Amino acid sequence: MIVKKLRLQHSWSQEQLAQFSGLSKRTIQRIERGKSASLESWKSLAAVFEVTVEELKPETEMNTESNNNTTSNRLTEEEADALEYVEELKAFYLHLMTFAVVIIFLVIVNFMTSSYPWVLWAIGGWGVGLAMHAIMTFDWFGIFSSEWEKKQVEKRLGRKL
Q: Which H or E run contains 160?
């Protein structure tokens, strides 16, 4: 997540960061999701961002006695939540665009090949899924909110978080 924060601060895409660092886009994606990476990958990213390798590595791997410069690159819980929300929002808008393109295509095919409006079944079915995605993304009714998630985790653990 620290890599993602720094990348966004520079307004770079994953492709641009991959090009600047000499790593693959897939490696960048994997590191941003918190997966393990080689020391060479960390060194390459540290050089691009002009920071030390220790500043980039996930907090669990970092030395607890770090200087103030290092902590400024760490993600706060609020930043992590914001990044997660933006990812969910991005997924919803991609879903919406895919829906629009495919439905437009199906409407054209339907009217060119048949007098029966079978496309309405596709719109209705997929529309329900899209509506559920919107409800979950924008938390319109408080269903499965972060507070609900916290309660469920605490219930499962049998203790407070």
A: none
DSSP per-residue letters across 91-118? HHHHHHHHHHHHHHHHHHHHHHH-SS-T
- Convert the pLDDT of each residue in 49-86 to its tens digit: 888 888 887 644 444 444 444 445 666 777 777 888 88
Q: What's the per-residue H, E or C state across 18-86?
A: HHHHCCCHHHHHHHHCCCCCCHHHHHHHHHHHCCCHHHHCCHHHCCCCCCHHHHCCCCCHHHHHHHHHH
Beta-carbon contacts of residue 1 (< 8 Å; ≥ 6 apart): 32, 34, 58, 75, 79, 80, 83
pLDDT 10s digits, 132-146 = 999 888 878 777 777
Residues in the chain: 161
Q: From residue 51, how far is each of 3, 14, 22, 72 by CA, in Å?
A: 11, 18, 17, 11
By C-alpha distance, which of 101, 122, 119 is closest to 111?
119
